[in-house]
Every structure is written in C-alpha cells, then in structure tokens.
Amino acid sequence: MDGYVTNIERDSVRNADFRRVLYTGPNIQLVLMTLRPREEIGVEAHKAHDQFIRVEQGTGVVRLNGEERPLQGGAAIVIPAGITHNIVNTSTQAPLRLYTLYSPPEHPDGTVHRTRQDAVAAEAKEKAEGQSVLQAGREAPEFTLPDESGRMVSLREFRGRAVVLAFYPADWSPVCGDQLALYNELVPDFRDMGAELLGISVDSVWSHSAYAKSRNLHFRLLSDFQPRGAVSRMYRAFHEEDGTCQRALFVIDGSGIITWSYLSPIDVNPGADGIVGALSKLKSPERFAAAKTEATPRASEESGARS
After folding, report:
1. How would you class 115 by CB atoms within 10 Å of its CB: exposed for 0-12, middle for 13-18, buried for 19 or more?
2. Band of pLDDT at residue 304, cut at 50, 70 and 90
C-alpha cells in the first residue's frame, strides 16, 4: 500500500477491538486499541521500537518507568525504546480508545485481537511453538529494498508470480554460504516453477555486491540495512539480541499471500525441500510452463549477465 489516509478519530472511536493493525509500512505501523473499563495494556518495554500514542476517548493513566500521569481525550504520549510503560483505563464504565504509531512495526500486518485475552493467548502460542515468523494465510507485507547493485526492488513487482524470501543472518558466514550456494543451484528450478528467489539480510549493499560476485550468485540479495532490520521485523524474522535476520523462509503466491513459512535454528541449513514442496502445491504443472514463459526479460538478462 502506497501510504494510508483515514479519519483516525472516527476509526478510533468506532473501534471495539483490543488491538487492530490498520497500516504497516517498512518503518512505521498504525494500530487502534480499545481498553475496556479497568483494563490495562500490561507492563512492557520495547527494546528497539519508539512509540507514539494519542488518546481519543476516555480516561486513564500512563506509567513511564514508574512515573504515573493522568490521561484523557486529546492526550499524547511519546515512548522511546527501552522505556517501561503501561496504560490503564481507570473508568469503571467507559472504554479508553486510542491509536498508536510504532517505529519500526511491532505486530504482523493485519493483526486483529478482539480482546486482551486473545492477544495474550496469541503471544503465548508463539512462544510455546517457538515460531514467531508470519504464518501462512497472511498477506505478505509490502517492502522496497536495494539489491546488491543498489537498484530498488519492491515486492509488488512480482505480482502474478510466486516469490521465495530467504532471510539469513549474514554474508560470508559458513552456514549461510552453504544455504545460499544450494539455492543458487536451484534458481533455474525455482523459475521453472514460476518463482523468483530473493535473499534478505541486514548486510550493506556493498557487502552484498562483493558477496554475490565472489559466489557467482544468480539471484538478488536485498539489504535490510537502513533502518536496520525494518523489513525482517515486518515478517517477524529479526533477532533483536544479535541485530540480524533470523534464518527464515517464506513462499508467497502471485496474489501476495504467504502460503508457507519456516523458521530454522540459526545454526542449521534448512535446505530446499520445504520450498520445493510449497511451490509444488502452489501451481499445477501446466501453469509452471506458463509462468516460465511469462518471466520478465530482466530476469533472463540478469541470469546471463551474472553467469
């Protein structure tokens, strides 16, 4: 989505959900929230996210690093990364309605939690399953990133074709080297199945350029370097402690929907079986041939130029 325009006061006042994500971009996210009488968000601190909150309706308090201040309609709150905070609806009868901006995005695009209990359950499920990356069935977040040549590449360019996103921790590392070398051999097979492969890490354009040339790679490497990890966070594929991408894979269909995702242990090469299996389910053999015929001339030219 190229930007977003809405009547945010109207949307906030009408919202009945605990959390509803309205818009997610590479660097910012707009979310509506409604707290029921005597309900609170819960004590939290975002390690790498700045947050802005505006109260549209209701009364409550905000606690920032233990300091409490009153809230009412029109109040604005700025919460820098690392600040412990909580918002409490102090009314016994009326809801507290607000909207918040996260930078970078905090929640998967399209997230809707009807109640606080739903939100807590969803977070608990993610931790229990050890799976935080976006799951199949969600719309893939749109992004634009520079490739190893500095050319800007957008996910929307590939509408009508499947896309394989391979997030990985770093260029030049042994496990990543083995993983990307395998995928490099399979690029013709992926394209035969109507799919384009894109590698993504937080390495710089210059690192990607040197790495792609040294490994003779035939697919693009995208730099999620500035702001660091903005896109990988959108896909829930960023490792906050290390400041790198996790080793995560996504298959996205031609309409922009994630049909398969997988989070691999950081020190394990996930191979390509899951990708191939997901692509095999995505299209019939007849459509594979059609997709191959419709591949853009640029893809063919790049393949020849990098050979």
Report:
1. middle
2. very low
pLDDT tens digits, residue range 160-178?
999 999 999 999 999 999 9
Query: How many angstroms separate the CA atoms of 49 and 82, rounded?
Result: 8
What integer best gives the mean pLDDT of the chain?
Answer: 88
pTM for the whole thing? 0.62
Right CATH for 144-306 from 3.60.21.10, 3.40.50.300, 3.30.499.10, 3.40.30.10? 3.40.30.10
Residues assigned a catalytic role: 176
CB atoms within 10 A of CB 82: 12
Q: Where in the chain is the domain with CATH 2.60.120.10?
A: 8-129
Rounded CA-CA distance 210/128 in Å is 39
Which among 237, 219, 52 is positioned nearest to 141, based on CA atoms? Answer: 237
Query: Which of 38, 26, 13, 22 shows the shortest CA–CA distance to 98?
Result: 13
Give the whole-angstrom CA distance, residue 294 versus residue 163: 14
Is residue 291 within 8 A of residue 283, CB to CB? The reply is yes
Residues with Cβ within 8 Å of 248's Cβ and at least 6 positions away in sequence, in order, are: 133, 165, 167, 232, 235, 237, 261, 262, 263, 264
CATH superfamily of the 8-129 domain: Jelly Rolls (2.60.120.10)
Residue carrying the six token digits 């991408």:
245
Domain with CATH 3.40.30.10 in the chain: 144-306
Cβ atoms of 97 and 13 within 8 Å: the answer is: yes
In whole angstroms, what separates CA 113 from the centre of its chain?
18
Tokens of 175: 């496990």
Per-residue pLDDT at 105 exceeds 50: yes
